[in-house]
Amino acid sequence: xxxxxxxxxLHKASRTLTLTYGPDExxxxxxxxxxxxxxxxEVQGHGQPILQFGKIAVGLINVEPAGQYAxxxxxxxxxxxxxxxxxxxxxxxxxxxxxxxDYLAELRAAGKSRDPAESVVxxxx
Length: 125
What we know:
Elements: E1 7-11, E2 16-22, E3 25-30, H1 31-36, H2 41-44, E4 60-66, E5 70-75, E6 83-85, H3 86-94, H4 96-110
């Protein structure tokens, strides 16, 4: 059974989406976190996820329902093609810490940065 939040709040200034599932279950998901974990083909690829980088300053500009099963999130970098199902949003909320740690490790391993103005260069001496 999918977990439908009882409240959804978009905080543009802090670039977060707050999902409330009950009095003791409130999650604050950052725009960057949501953007790099978008369920879209652009991010998930076709069988092989595509590492997103340079998204530290991305913001959420709109949240709208997609039928009764998902949210369509629009980001200020133009990305708006992923539909976040209720189940997927709940999984992201519950696993946020481990998913974020995995993402940071993938960035390091790929020599990429969260900052679009920063380029990681490895010197081979």
